[in-house]
Amino acid sequence: MTLLNSFYQKENLPTPQIFQKSVPSTLLKKHKEFGYFVKGGVDQPQYKRENIFIRLLESIHPQDAEVVLSMVAKKSPVKFLTKNLIEETFPNLIVK
Q1: Exposed e or buried b for every residue in 17-27, given b needs 16+ CB within 10 A?
Q2: Between the CA atoms of 88, 89, 92 and 96, what dihedral angle is there, to the nearest 10 degrees?
Q3: For the chain, where are the alpha helices, taking DSSP H only?
Q4: For 17-26, 44-53, 66-75, which range has the lowest pLDDT when averaged over its residues?
Q5: I want to staple 70 with a disulfide (CB 3.0 to 4.6 A). Which of 2, 34, 77, 83 is the partner?
Q6: Tell me, what DSSP letter sits at residue 36?
Q7: What CA–CA distance (Å, rounded) separates 85 from 78?
């Protein structure tokens, strides 16, 4: 009986990986804000765009923030993912 009790005690319950870091939002929900950062997007003063960008980075998961920062730096967040590979796989994805 003590063995079964030990399995159901809160101290022994594994914490799922997704619940270890609680973040207020996700990149999927915040993707609409990218319109502030692209040419031809929403026209805002520079300081407002920077403030929106900082709030976006603070509100998403740290790994998602790293992906966003790598996109800004025009670096691939994934090893071996190149522009040529994307053009081969999805020929109509990148408009020239």
Answers
A1: eeeeeeeeeeb
A2: -40
A3: 2-8, 27-30, 46-59, 62-72, 83-89
A4: 17-26
A5: 77
A6: G
A7: 12
Q: Are 86 and 93 in contact (CB under 8 A)?
A: yes
- Asked if 35 and 42 count as a contact pair (C-beta separation under 8 A), the reply is yes
pLDDT tens sequence across 50-62: 999 999 998 988 8
CB crowding 37-73: b at 16 or more within 10 Å, else e? beeeeeeeeeeebeebbeebbebbeeebbeebeeeee
Phi, psi of 14 (to 5 degrees): -75, 145
| DSSP label at residue 76 | -
The rounded distance, in Å, linking the Cα atoms of 3 and 7 is 7
Instruction: Compute the distance between CA of residue 70 and CA of residue 34 in angstroms, rounded to an integer.
Output: 14
| pLDDT tens digits for range 13-26 | 444 444 445 667 88
Where are the domains positioned within the chain?
22-89
